[in-house]
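Incident review: delayed structure delivery

Summary: a single-chain prediction request sat in the queue longer than the usual turnaround. Root cause was a stuck worker, restarted by the on-call engineer. No data loss occurred. The affected request and its eventual output are reproduced below so the record is complete for anyone auditing the incident later.

Affected input:
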Amino acid sequence: MGNRPLFTCCRVAGAFLAVAALTIGSYRSVAAAPHRPQTVSDFTLSDVNGKPVKFSSLSAKAVVVDIWATWCPPCEAEVPHLMALQKKYQSQGLQVVGIALDDVPLVQAFIQKNSLNYPVWMGSPTVEKVFGHIAEMPTTFVLDGRGHIRHVYEGYYGDKTTAALESDVQAVLGGASQ
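Output delivered after worker restart:
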């Protein structure tokens, strides 16, 4: 009986730490995410106009795949940074691709409102088959030109994510011939 308050305190503290860890977000290398594939196999999705697009049609040294939705505030906050990456590194071989898990009309309106400078494909059950379970949005992948997943970001946490993402893109572009 004498340990009951201590036990309750530890349970509350544990729950608090678990919630804090979830809200702070995560950045994981592929090695730290064993539930994810190491390499993305070729797949086909549709663009926002219904045209099929194959992943293998991308000819880039580095690919950033951002899985997002229009109803997700962190997803919306990440978009200007993804657009800046696309603009800054496109000439060096970067291609950003958004995969929207949302309704086509909402995505089309979002693209128009925000003048996205990278393609957006519509998600389907194929997305989880290719990338593994998407537990948090946005989930952003950095891949090399051969489709090897180099880094995974779950959630968007402002400058912390932006800086790490850019650093990872630079590393993949710099080591693209590896």
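Verification: The first strand starts at residue 26 and ends at 29.
Action items: add queue-age alerting; document worker restart procedure.
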